[in-house]
Amino acid sequence: MLSNQLEKGSKLIWSRLPNTEDVSDEDGGLRSAGIDGVESLDYEVIENYAYRQEQARRGKLYVWYYVGVKWLFALLIGIGTGLAAVLINISVENFAGWKYSWTFNIIQTSYVAGFIVYTMINLALVFSSVYIITQFAPAAAGSGIPEIKGYLNGIDTRGILLFRTLIGKIFGSIGSVGGGLALGKEGPLVHTGACIASLLGQGGSTKYHLSSRWLQIFKSDRDRRDLVTCGCAAGVAAAFRAPVGGVLFALEEVTSWWRSQLMWRVFFTSAVVAVVVRTAMGWCKSGKCGHFGSGGFIIWDVSDGQEDYSFAELLPMAIIGVIGGLLGALFNQLTLYITHWRRNYLHKKGNRVKIIEACLISVITSIISFGLPLFRKCSACPDSDSTIECPRQPGTYGNYVNFFCTKDNEYNDLATIFFNTQDDAIRNLFSAKTIHEYSAQSLLTFLVMFYGLAVVTFGTAVPAGQFVPGIMIGSTYGRLVGMFVVRLYRKTNIEEGTYALLGAASFLGGSMRMTVSLCVIMVEITNNLKLLPLIMLVLLISKAVGDAFNEGLYEEQARLRGIPLLESRPKNLMRKMTAKEACGNQKVSYFTRVVKVADVATILRTNNHNGFPVVDHSRNGETMVIGLILRSHLLVLLQSKADFQHSPLAVDMRSHSIPIRHNLSDFVKPVTSKGLSINDIHLSPDDLEMYIDLAPFVNPSPYVVPEDMSLTKVYNLFRQLGLRHTFVVPRASRVIGMITRKDLLFEDNEDSGSVELQSTSVRGERVTRRNTSDVGSPLLNGLLE
Question: pTM here?
Answer without folding.
Answer: 0.86
